[in-house]
Amino acid sequence: MNIYYLTLFPDMYEGVLGASILKRAKDKGIVDYHMINFRDFSGDKHNKVDDYPYGGGAGMVLKPEPVFNAMDSLNIGDNKRVILMCPQGKPFDQKLAEELAEEDNIVFINGHYEGYDERIRTLVTDEVSIGDYVLTGGELASMTMTDAIVRLIPDVLSNQASHQEDSFSTGMLEHPHYTRPREYRGMKVPEVLLSGNHKHIEEWRHEQSLKRTRERRPDLLDG
Ligand code: ADE
Predict the structure, then answer these.
(1) Quick check: 3 and 100 in contact, CB under 8 A?
(2) ipTM value of the model?
(3) Measured in angstroms, how far is the CA atom of residue 126 from the centroid of ligand 1?
(4) Which positions in this protein are listed as binding S-adenosyl-L-methionine (predicted)?
(5) In terms of Cα–Cα distance, which of 51, 1, 61 is closest to 30?
(6) Which terminal Cβ of the chain has fewer Cβ within 10 Å, N or C?
(7) Angle, nearest 10°, between helix axes 20-27 and 139-150?
(8) Is the CB–ligand 1 distance for residue 131 below 6 Å?
(9) CA 214 to chain centre
């Protein structure tokens, strides 16, 4: 998979994409990350990427030229998802992460202004928000999405089963986990997990999953 980030702040990505599992996925050749600073495509001698809104009002608007020109420079044809990061977009969730994990090319457009010139939306296949709050720009949101997507690509995680049991993949939150020691500061590991009886363990985990989901996220059980 190739992932392209149209951004004015390519440095923001270094720490996140250059560490841990996202880095390993790149080192294994499973994914590649490409930062495109669309200021380089402004076509303006002052490298201007934003301008005042027609009709007046507060804030600046991202101009169309830098984004259209940067998109043209990618040369990747139609086989791509183009995602506009925006608080007005559809909410990001595990289902969308699973869908995007199957793509060959993903382009994230990251704005930093009051808004995008509306014509930029003609380039886009999806508008996505990571939550009902406003960030200073799309970068953190596109990194969050990258993390959720890349871990789902086959061979990125060493233990494939681990994401099939993730919270949300099953439609419920995950059951509690325990590791050694058996007892810590008076808190004991539930007997059933030590029993070696796999059927009982599975039943216990399912019950716990259901209990946790009912308590914390009853909305997930609706329907
Ligand atoms: N840009 C600013 N806020 C955002 C959000 N909540 N989700 C995605 N992109 C954003």
Answers:
(1) no
(2) 0.98
(3) 13
(4) 111, 130-135
(5) 1
(6) C
(7) 60
(8) yes
(9) 26
